[in-house]
Write a structure and sequence with these properties.
It is built from 8 helices and 15 strands. With 249 residues, the chain is an alpha/beta fold. It is elongated. The chain starts with a strand and ends with a helix.
Length: 249
């Protein structure tokens, strides 16, 4: 059994999630329903759960602040939230799980299923990435957590050369010629990296602009990357590319 607690300032939301877990996730034992963020810190320390369902938007302390007060983190965390662009981007960057309210049963089951596959070392790094991105939403960060077919891999952002869409997956090509198949769509990856030096130059390709060595003109044009690969630029994205390559012109 996975021992869990639910933290949400709305009692109805707590009870609704507990009901879904009892019906659809019998391996999860809910130890407590907590409606106060400050009390959550004390109760989580006392109960030492393996999993915390944590609301993000709460009075006095938000979910991220609760985690900071509990650091170092020794439990898995699944966030619950209404749509919050910056919060969700921070969560995605760290490859942690979140559920949008109202909670979908299939998404809940999938999130719980992932819990048993995580390792403590990667969890600590994920939490560090999450809080870094939360505190510095407009600044680039050095590392990103990526869910691969084998688990989780944390890499330096500046080692990414380009990313190619492959159905519902994304193939990362890194500087050491390594390729990673990531369980995220290219659109999700674009949303995570758009504030850094990355640009979608084609419907199926996102490139690191720092690794562009040459642009050859054409209908859309072609990019020569630092590893010698050539990347086509779509006509619709040509203008945006040139603005990024030659700012101020």
């Amino acid at each position: 059994m996975i021992k869990a607690v639910i933290v949400d300032d709305e009692p109805y939301a707590c009870q609704a999630l507990a009901t879904l877990l009892k019906k659809h996730c019998p391996d999860v034992q809910v130890l407590a329903l907590i409606n106060n963020a400050k009390e959550a810190v004390t109760i989580i320390r006392e109960l030492n759960p393996e999993l915390v369902f944590l609301d993000i938007e709460m009075p006095y302390l938000n979910g991220f602040e609760v985690l900071e007060m509990l650091a170092p983190i020794h439990f898995d965390c699944i966030f619950t939230t209404s749509y919050d662009q910056y919060a969700i981007k921070a969560i995605r960057f760290s490859a942690l799980d979140y559920l949008l309210k109202p909670v979908d049963v299939e998404e809940l089951k999938a999130a719980v299923k992932k819990v048993t596959s995580k390792s403590a070392p990667s969890l600590q790094q994920q939490m560090e990435l999450l809080l870094q991105r939360y505190h510095q939403p407009q600044q680039g960060v050095n590392r990103i957590a990526l869910p691969t077919l084998d688990g989780l891999q944390i890499i330096a952002v500046d080692t990414i050369l380009y990313c190619n869409a492959s159905s519902n997956y994304t193939v990362f090509t890194l500087k050491d010629t390594q390729k990673l198949v990531i369980s995220r769509t290219l659109k999700e990856i674009e949303e995570m990296l758009e504030e850094d030096r990355f640009l979608r130059v084609h419907h199926s390709c996102l490139v690191n602009l720092d690794e562009v060595r040459k642009y050859s003109r054409g209908e859309g044009g072609t990019l020569l990357m630092s590893d010698g690969a050539e990347v086509d630029v779509s006509r619709s994205r040509k203008e945006a590319l040139l603005k990024r390559l030659m700012p101020g012109k």
